[in-house]
Amino acid sequence: MTKIIDGKAISQKIKDELKEEVARKKGEGKEACLAVIQVGKYPASTVYVGNKKKACAYIGIDSQSYELPEETSQDELLSLIDKLNDDPKVTGILVQLPVPGHIDEDTIIKRISPLKDVDGFHPMSVGALCIGEKGFVSCTPAGVIKLLKYSDIEIAGKECVVIGRSNIVGKPMSLLLLRENGTVTVCHSKTKNLKEVCKRADILVVAIGRPKMINEEYIKDGAVVIDVGIHRMENGKLCGDVDYESVAPKCSAITPVPGGVGPMTIAMLMYNVVSAM
User: Fold this and answer.
1) pTM of the predicted structure, to 2 decimals
2) Domain presence at residue 14
3) Which of 52, 116, 158, 171 is the catalytic position?
4) Is the Cα dihedral 131, 133, 138, 144 positive or negative?
5) In a domain, 2, yes or no
6) Can 96 be counted among the known catalytic residues?
7) Which domain holds residue 229?
8) Which pLDDT value is given to residue 42?
9) Which is the catalytic residue, given 38, 116, 117, 119?
10) Is 82 a catalytic residue?
């Protein structure tokens, strides 16, 4: 029978553990504060920012919210980041993506101090992951590893296939699986014989950005399938990159959408903020 990996329940466990750790660190005189910057009014971003503030309140850390108008210039945004970098009370900074088109995302990401880069996007954070040094890890792929571990799914020695090579999910995901001693293949839009490659996977992580693209023809019997995608269909319902109905019966374990990887992203953001205390 297929195991449904409950990201809501696992993320709640992590937040409860972090709540205890925050209380202990506060007893040692340590404090944490997350500064969240949002430029422009993107409805999805507003929801994400709200969820991050709720998570901060739950585990007992301060948060600062900066909601800037869409016409905010890049220089104004960089000036705010500089101010937060220099503020000793602020231990974590994130700029909610996307930002308006006149602002360069790479420039913004690189301006955040690597010591406060709780999103794990700074080149120094990514470089540390590549060579196995300590640093912040991108929250979504870190959450996938936690999902697997909390579900008692062994990674070491397994054939792991990642579909997608983005800087935020695909690339760090492959590095984290490699760090856990998985044998890793990264697939992308130019991969030949994608179905055949995917059917080798003991663990398949899908972050391709196309609704319901991966069906049962891509899945080996007994595989573990992690669906990172999230899309809203015309009927208003959410779906992932995986065609859940056709894939689930072939799996030993699978993440649903919603309620799988999504809640883990915020839990791991909180993990990063607490580790900066």
Assistant:
1) 0.94
2) no
3) 52
4) positive
5) no
6) yes
7) 139-261
8) 84
9) 119
10) no
Q: How many CB atoms within 10 Å of residue 12?
A: 14
CA angle 241, 173, 19 (to 5 degrees): 95
Q: pLDDT of 104-149, one tens digit each? A: 999 999 999 999 999 999 999 999 999 989 999 999 999 999 999 9
Q: Would you state the torsion angle of the CA atoms of residues 215, 221, 226, 231, taken in this order, to the nearest 10 degrees?
A: 10
Which CATH number belongs to the domain containing residue 177 in this structure?
Answer: 3.40.50.720
Give the model's pLDDT for residue 277: 87
Known catalytic residue at 74: no
Q: Which of 38, 96, 116, 243 does the annotation list as catalytic? A: 96
Flag whether 85 is in a domain. yes
Let me know if residue 8 belongs to a domain.
no
Length of the chain: 277
Based on the structure, what is the number of domains in the chain? 2
Average pLDDT along the chain: 96
Picking from 68, 86, 117, the residue at the C-terminal end of a domain is 117
Domain CATH code at residue 49: 3.40.50.10860
Report whether 121 contacts 138 (CB < 8 A). Answer: yes
